[in-house]
Amino acid sequence: MKIKPFLESENDDIRYASILLMGNLSKFGSGEPVFKDQIHNVLVSLLLHLVDPNPQVVKACKFAMRVCAPVVGSEQITAMFQNHLHEDKSLHYGEFINDLTKYLIQDFPGMLNFYHISVIQFFKSNWPEVRAAAAMFIGFLLGNLQQEHFSQLNMATVTKGLVLLLQDSDPVVRAKAAEAMGQFH
């Protein structure tokens, strides 16, 4: 809980170090329910910082997610993180998040409200890359969500956030927000 604020630090070195620390702590938290909750608590931040403008932060996220994966509690997500999150390999973020949201919906339906609220908080991130990734994440989450789960999401807040992103100064953010809104059905 004390590390979480540093994951969003504007200082690249602090962001990098806090993410590495989170990953290294997972070696000691295996089997601890409280640590599992904390991993879920920072998962959205780690996922969105996979597109961080600092390449070292991206590598740290990949490392942290690979070593924390067994604690998450999903064999499919663990396998996905182990197979796709290699520090020196590129990642097709859209495909990765699209597949991941399917597993999150399937394996953690009770966490959907928490995940979508966490993602919405990143609509105001300092980094346009992270704002665009947040729009993509919410878009794929909505696109993959079955009808029975929609009641868990605050669609008014999602819509309001995406409308604000449509007015963002960065054209990529605006495009990703429009794509996310295309998932509404």
TrEMBL record:
Residues 2-184 form the Maestro/Maestro-like HEAT-repeats domain. GO terms for cellular component: cytoplasm. InterPro entries: ARM-like (IPR011989), ARM-type_fold (IPR016024), HEAT_Maestro (IPR055406), Maestro_heat-like_prot (IPR045206). It comes from the Eukaryota. Coiled coil: none annotated. It holds the Pfam family HEAT_MROH2B_C. This is Maestro/Maestro-like HEAT-repeats domain-containing protein.
